[in-house]
Design goal:
With 256 residues, this protein is an alpha/beta fold. It has 6 helices and 8 strands; from the N terminus they run H-E-E-H-E-H-E-E-E-H-E-H-E-H. The chain has one domain: Zn peptidases (Aminopeptidase), CATH 3.40.630. The structure holds zinc ion.
């Protein structure tokens, strides 16, 4: 089906014509019936093939170098600057790599993976999994995915979601480990379901015990996938907390 992108303002206007709101304005009676809206669209477009790149860094394990744990965040964005979705998670991935590299070699190898194409169907993580995980899935002891961690009042780990039309379940063991680390650090984290998987989906489908860490889990916040997702919505102190959690969790998983 051909798809066309319109500006955020035009999108809002169209939704108003449809009377489709995330939240019904106060004093307005919700109408649960739809009526046609006539729309003419002229599009002058050209399509071409494109490609993206995954970026991988690693700290080699000392005693079990062939066993791996991975910290994963996507670096592509849907529309707009993508500060919370998902540049802040990439920043945490880099900072975690910098901090852990100073501690010397862990038992297992730690991979810091920045993937492309999450917003268009987790293309980058599917490619990474096909190339590095599938030849020997049992080598991957755990993966920790971060998506949308730059703003929000609660810490969540995901318990299950949908990926490629399949129900995928996050690892209860890795989730329990996250809970233990948060407990040690004095933070509260809770489990929740999610409508759609992020980069955790491809790892779970390949059989890797995987957790997905998030701070906002609803798509009803106004700046998701818009030009408003810029530096001004980032909670800087919250990033420090998230980096503490990821660094401790991935380091402990690599040394179990
Ligand atoms: Zn994302």
């Amino acid at each position: 089906m051909p798809a066309v992108a319109v500006t955020y303002e035009d999108g809002q206007y169209l939704k108003e014509l449809y009377r489709e709101w995330y939240a019904v304005p106060k004093g307005f009676k919700r109408v649960d019936e739809y009526w046609p809206v006539m729309l003419h669209v002229w599009v002058d477009a050209e399509s071409k093939e494109s490609h993206g790149l995954n970026v991988i860094g690693s700290i080699k394990g000392s005693t079990l170098p062939n066993e791996k744990v991975a910290l994963v965040a996507h670096h592509d964005n849907a529309f707009g600057p993508g500060a919370c979705d998902n540049a802040t998670a990439v920043a945490i991935n880099l900072e975690t790599a910098r901090a852990l590299a100073a501690l010397g070699a862990p038992k297992r190898t730690i991979e810091f993976v920045s993937v492309t194409g999450e917003e268009y169907g987790e293309f980058g993580s599917f490619a990474y999994v096909a190339k590095y995980v599938k030849p020997d899935p049992s080598a991957y002891k755990a993966a920790l995915v971060m998506d949308i961690v730059g703003n929000g009042d609660h810490l969540y780990y995901i318990t299950e979601s949908i990926c490629m039309g399949k129900l995928v379940q996050n690892s209860p063991q890795v989730n329990a480990h996250l809970e233990k680390v948060c407990d040690e650090l004095g933070y509260v984290i809770q489990g929740t379901q999610l409508e759609y998987a992020s980069d955790d989906g491809p790892f779970i489908l390949a059989g890797v015990p995987t957790s997905y860490l998030a701070k906002l889990i609803s798509n009803s916040w106004p700046w998701l996938h818009t030009y408003m997702d810029d530096f001004s919505v980032v909670d800087i102190n919250g990033l420090t907390v998230m980096a503490e959690i990821t660094a401790n969790t991935i380091w402990q998983l690599a040394n179990l």
